[in-house]
Amino acid sequence: MSRIRTPLAERLGLRYPIVCAPMFIISNKEMIVAAAEAGILGSMPSINARTPEAFRETLAWIRQRTDRPFAINLTIKLTDPERLQQDFAACLEFGVPAVITSYGNPSEIARQAHDRGMVVLHDVIHLKHALKAQESGADAIIGVAAGAGGHAGTTSPFVLYPYLREHLRVPVVAAGCIATGRQVAASLALGAELVYMGTRFIASTECGADEQYKSLVINGSPEDIEYTDGVSGVHANFLRQTLPGGALTTAADRSIAQVSVQKDGGKKWKDIWSAGQGIALAREVKPIAAIVADIVREYGEAVRALPTLEET
Length: 312
Ligand SMILES: Cc1cc2nc3c(=O)[nH]c(=O)nc-3n(C[C@H](O)[C@H](O)[C@H](O)COP(=O)(O)O)c2cc1C
Known about the structure:
CATH architecture of the largest domain: Alpha-Beta Barrel
Radius of gyration: 19 Å
Number of domains: 2
CATH topology of the largest domain: TIM Barrel
Order of helices and strands: HEHEHEHEHEHEHEHEHHEEHHH
CATH superfamily of the largest domain: Aldolase class I
CATH class of the largest domain: Alpha Beta
Strand content: 5-15%
Bound molecules: flavin mononucleotide
Strand order of the largest sheet: 1-2-3-4-5-6-7-8
Number of helices: 13
Distance between the termini: 37 Å
Shape: globular
Largest sheet: 8 strands, parallel, barrel
Low-confidence stretches: 249-265
Helix content: 40-55%
Mean pLDDT: 93
Number of strands: 10
Structural class: alpha/beta
């Protein structure tokens, strides 16, 4: 059995330093269990369960199927405060090993999570927010680079990960466009201790995304990704074909999408599909176990192919 060790992966109890990143609407409990069994950290936003009761059932379901680590994403400002509090209480009750906080200040969650030995990962696009999250008690900072699926930054991964590493005491998690083992190796070389992958896992058998969505991901190129704040007011990356006026939208679809753009909340993400530039490197829908096996093989090949430093 192979292993890729980093201090943060060891702390989390992972065989490989990879996270199947949380994705609104489409991440699910099946992905969490498959990821856990494949030796990586699966995750989902708590609000992908429709109600607090459904979320508790989800945690119980996962707990019955795996005793390996997994994470729950708490989207602080995007979640109704009462729901957030209920979902976090359920995480504490079920002993969820890690929480991923996003869209807000993680300090209160981090304080209570640490009392229970949970690991807190927090995602940012800028150093300024990374420093704040570190002060708030985050155990690791996820740097979301340009081209990532979902709400993405604009900084190149070539700069973001080493820059965050240089300025932070806590470990850096690399996020954005990573879809292959070669890129995992590059991310670790750039100073990350963990790699965060969303888009690649849209094209997994277990993912709840529509088949047409998966098909766009495995057939797409970087040019198919549009970075816009027109959908939710915050810049994010979307499959161009699903944006209003995009190639996939018939006149009827377009009017649905237009309406969705105007609505609050998550409905827009149902009609307009998000993905990152990593679609260029995701070529097949596979079970998560097979995707992880590919990544591990590619990682080994990439590392072995690197020219070594010769002393002359
Ligand atoms: C469809 C979709 C939905 C997402 N929803 C969330 C979310 O609810 N919470 C969150 O913290 N990040 C969310 N993200 C961001 C991912 O967790 C992760 O940062 C991103 O996918 C990494 O970039 P990559 O897609 O290029 O691998 C989402 C990403 C995608 C593609």
